[in-house]
Amino acid sequence: MDDAVLVPDHPSKFTLELGSDGRASVRADCNRGSGSYRLDGRSLTFGPMATTRATCRPGSLSDRYLAELAHVASWLERDGKLHLATRADGAILEFQPAPGQDGLLSPAERCTRSGGTVGTASCCGLAGDFPGTCRPGACGCAPGDSHTVQACQCPAGLCFDGRSCVPSGKQPSGQLR
Questions:
Q1: Residues 6 or more apart from 96 whose CB is under 8 A from it?
Q2: How far apart (Å, rounded) are the C-alpha atoms in residues 129 and 116?
Q3: Which of 71, 140, 162, 175 is 20 to 30 A from 83 (CA-CA)?
Q4: How far apart are CA 87 and CA 80, in angstroms?
């Protein structure tokens, strides 16, 4: 690793989406691609990526980004960002959550990974999708003051704290999981 910090001129042109089906989608400047990934504890590896091969503008980090992804060996979530470490040269790729997402996983993925199922609920006017159900209030309005939102339906004895299904009565921790 040469300690160089490379920052794309438009971070929104360099994305990584890890689907719950084991498929990864990438945007690398003017190119897009997809492939498989394997997550095992803190180990993360990517299979071959099928990508477009457009010639991006001079100075683009597209080729470097795709090459580094091929060498990813592990991951860490810290300060709301995803950090991927490579095995080849010790490079670290840092990702921020897409605007509007709760952490690195979508609320639906947080729900299902913690044992819940995604459904709908009739909630108060200001409540958005996946409201916390550990505290009364968000979905306790009269029908005329409610609207339908996506909600996490946790198993009996559990409630959704906005991040996962937890034992009823447990308050949110304030940390990403």
A1: 11, 80, 81
A2: 15
A3: 162
A4: 23
Question: Hey, how many other C-beta atoms are within 10 angstroms of the C-beta on 154?
Answer: 22
Residue 29 Cα distances to 48, 57, 107, angstroms = 19, 9, 27
pTM for this predicted structure: 0.56
Q: Which residues contact 145 (CB under 8 A, 6 or more apart)?
A: 124, 125
The pair of three-digit structure tokens given for residue 131, joined into one six-digit string: 């409201």
**Ranges in the chain, pLDDT < 50:** 1, 100-103, 171-177
Rg of the chain's alpha carbons, rounded to an integer?
19
Give residue 117's Cα distance to chain centre.
18
Tokens of 34: 């997809």
Do the beta carbons of residue 116 and residue 152 sit within 8 Å? Answer: yes
Position 137 scores a pLDDT of 62
**170 Cβ contact list (under 8 Å, min separation 6):** 134, 159, 161
Instruction: List, as one string, the DSSP characters of 57-97.
Output: PTT--HHHHHHHHTTEEEEEEETTEEEEEESSS--EEEEPP
d(CA 92, CA 74): 10
Residue 118, Cβ density class (10 Å: 0-12 exposed, 13-18 middle, ≥19 buried): middle
Element (H, E) at 31: strand 31-40
